[in-house]
Every structure is written in structure tokens, then in C-alpha cells.
């Protein structure tokens, strides 16, 4: 994985199936002094999703909150 995607994944994997605020993910990957760029984070999440889905891992978007890593479930919840 590219560095930013690895950092995002490592943050989500600490608490699988629990929502991690977008701001917290951003700070983990870009540093506390860098203001949240939601569009950039969304692009990185999109790329990461494509890489991990073959392994039964899925990232769900929790609108206006953050993201959560789901293990062993399809994107439609089955």
C-alpha cells in the first residue's frame, strides 16, 4: 500500500467495525497541523477500498462522521 493508504488502514484497523472520525484519520495520516481536506481523504479512501475488497475488507462511510472498517462482509451487508 502507498504510505497514506497504509496510515489510513492502520488507523481503521485499530478499532474494526467502529466509526473513526474523519478528522482523526486525517491527523493520523497528515499530521495534527494539517487542516482536514475531506475531498483528498475521500479519494484516498476510495483507492484503499479498491485494494482491500478482494480480501473481504470494506470501508463504510458514515456521512458527516467518519469511516469504519468492516471485516468479512460484502459492501451490501451480507
Describe the structure.
Helix 1 (3-14) packs across helix 2. This protein has three helices and three strands. The chain has a single domain (3-71), classed as Orthogonal Bundle (Arc Repressor Mutant, subunit A). It has 78 residues and is of the alpha+beta class. The model has no long low-confidence stretch (mean pLDDT 92).
Features:
single chain, 78 residues, alpha+beta, Arc Repressor Mutant, subunit A, three-stranded antiparallel sheet, globular
Report the sheet-strand fraction. Answer: 15-25%
What do the pLDDT scores average to?
92
Shape: globular
Overall CATH architecture: Orthogonal Bundle
Count the E strands.
3
- Give the strand line-up of the largest sheet: 1-3-2
- DSSP summary: helix tally: 3
SSE topology:
Layout: H1 3-14, E1 20-21, H2 22-30, H3 38-52, E2 57-62, E3 66-71
Antiparallel strand pairs: 1-3, 2-3
Produce a short descriptive summary.
46% of the residues lie in helices and 18% in strands. The chain is of the alpha+beta class.
Amino acid at each position: 500500500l502507498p504510505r497514506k493508504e497504509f496510515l489510513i488502514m492502520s488507523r481503521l484497523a485499530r478499532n474494526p467495525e467502529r466509526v473513526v472520525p474523519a478528522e482523526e484519520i486525517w491527523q493520523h495520516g497528515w499530521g495534527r497541523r494539517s487542516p482536514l481536506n475531506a475531498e483528498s481523504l475521500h479519494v484516498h479512501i476510495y483507492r484503499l477500498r479498491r485494494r482491500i475488497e478482494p480480501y473481504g475488507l470494506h470501508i463504510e462511510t458514515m456521512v458527516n462522521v467518519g469511516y469504519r472498517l468492516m471485516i468479512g462482509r460484502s459492501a451490501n451487508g451480507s
